[in-house]
Amino acid sequence: MLRTSDNKIRFIQRQEKTLKVTSNFFIQELPLCELKPMNGKDNAFLWGCVDASDGAPNPEKLGIRVKDAEEAKEFKTAWEAA
User: Fold this and answer.
1) How many CB atoms lie under 10 A from the CB of residue 72?
2) How far apart are CA 9 and CA 32, in angstroms?
3) 3, 50, 64, 73: most buried, per Cβ within 10 A?
4) Which residues contact 25 (CB under 8 A, 6 or more apart)?
5) What is the C-alpha separation between 76 and 82, in angstroms, rounded?
6) Could you tell me the pTM of the whole model?
7) Strands 2-3 and 9-14
8) If residue 69 lies in a helix (H) or strand (E), which one and from where to where?
9) Strand extents, DSSP E, the chain
10) What is the dihedral sign for C-alpha 66, 67, 72, 78?
C-alpha cells in the first residue's frame, strides 16, 4: 500500500512470478472496499474496488490469499488502518 501526497492510500498487487500488476486502486470508504473473508478461510479475503490495472478504471471484485493466519491478521490490520 502506498500513500499519495494528498493522503490517499493506493493498493498495488503484483503476480508473484511475473510481477505483472494484477490490481491498482485507491482504498475507498465502505461499502466499496469492504474486506470480507473468502469462503470462511482465515488466510484469504475478498473486496470490491474500482481497479485500473488494465488501463481504464472498472468496478471489480478482487481477492488475495496470504501465507498463513498471522500474515492475514497483519494484512487486515493494515487494510483497516488505511
Assistant:
1) 19
2) 14
3) 64
4) 10, 11, 33, 49, 50, 51, 52, 53, 57, 60
5) 10
6) 0.78
7) antiparallel
8) helix 69-81
9) 2-3, 9-14, 21-26, 36-37, 44-51, 58-65
10) negative
| Predicted confidence (pLDDT) per residue in 41-59, tens digit | 889 999 999 999 888 898 9
> Does pLDDT of 4 surpass 90?
no
Q: Report percent pLDDT > 70 for the chain.
A: 100
Cell of 70: 498471522
**Cell 498495488, residue?**
12
Question: What's the rounded Cα separation, in Å, for the pair 40 and 37?
Answer: 6
d(CA 44, CA 3): 24
Range 22-37 average pLDDT: 85
Helix (H, G, I), strand (E, B) or coil at 26: strand
39-15-26-46 Cα dihedral, nearest 10 degrees: 0
